[in-house]
């Protein structure tokens, strides 16, 4: 290569062609290679590469100030990559990694992900204060699990998703207990299978105390309204505010339903006479997914939604001065069942500002026909009382969209009302000015002179 470079009097192109002719079986250097050789020869006096370490960025940090520069860069901003730190400190990536590993730092990679609300981890120390002695306006849903349990592992992402879905529900908490670490707690609560999901409803104080007596004990379940056989004896045996349990070891197999359709099994109260022992009632019928668990949880929440019939619809919605948000649904509609918890959250967010109601279109077909309902579910907003207007349809079942739609509609209505009031006030002021008649005490008492200052009226 040196001979080829020297022969054509430092012409890189000619040197490249000459090298290719003389050594046809070798890999042919490009013109840039010969240019770099010439430059190296002029600067260093040799064609061979310089000794490693004499030029370029050092592979190893030999100066304390460079090491301090790397550590300072990481402590000030952990987010920059090692490549950026190497470029800023004039070190190699290997040198930066060497410094970081020596100080116990490790590089990491991160990606943007949706944040799921953490589930509250309960222990033996705080279980009594948070569950047994909980406030009456709190509801807890607790998962008792074991880390080695396969079903528990499958439930974990669904449980995290459930916590996210329930974040907008006031005073509703999602918790979990690791029964491998909290063995005494789970044994005391009678946990015999994993996972066990228990609901501690509103107006309850946990499980209450269970007293084993010689009289037969009966199991009681919150969701079943059948009266107990011996009410007085049951009150001394089991607290009537006991928790409802979703037991995974039920004899009923889990089953899948069609998309968007959920079936609710209203199990009868199971009682078994067994002297001195307790037979626990089992709540079953749902697959263990975040959506099905949320639907089950939804049944225990106090509803701010008024069930409307033709009479109450006409009196409250059509002729009332309050703003109403009404859900027209059908019980057999899968989308309606899916939308019910969403509408519940919307009603709670709008409580005190907008009243919420729902109409069963299976029962009241004529009412839904008059309202122009052609599909289920249909949500309509009624801003002002009218005998002939059946509200404005909201073209979405998204919670955020409906809340934004209602907020914008209320602001628009308020602005229009104020504009009309100001126009009426200005017109009234012109009349008074043209009449050139001052307001008497009688006029002031009848408020006929206050139109010019009117800022808000009721339509």
Q: What can you tell me about this protein's structure?
A:
With 459 residues, the protein is α/β, with parallel strands linked by helices. The chain has five domains: 2-44, no CATH class; 64-102; 120-298, Glutaredoxin (3-Layer(aba) Sandwich); 305-397, Glutaredoxin (3-Layer(aba) Sandwich); 409-453, no CATH class. The chain has helices at residues 2-6, 12-22, 31-44, 64-76, 82-89, 93-102, 127-132, 150-165, 183-188, 231-237, 290-298, 310-318, 334-349, 365-370, 399-435, 441-445, and strands at 120-121, 139-145, 172-178, 196-200, 244-247, 305-308, 324-329, 355-360, 378-382, 392-394. Strand 7, helix 13 and strand 8 form a beta-alpha-beta unit. The N and C termini lie far apart (97 Å). Mean pLDDT is 70; it is low at 207-285, 430-437 and 444-459.
CATH class of the largest domain: Alpha Beta
**Major beta-sheet overview:** 5 strands, mixed
Inertia-based shape: elongated
Share of β-strand residues: 5-15%
Any idea of the CATH topology of the largest domain? Answer: Glutaredoxin
Gap between N and C termini: 97 Å
Average pLDDT metric:
70
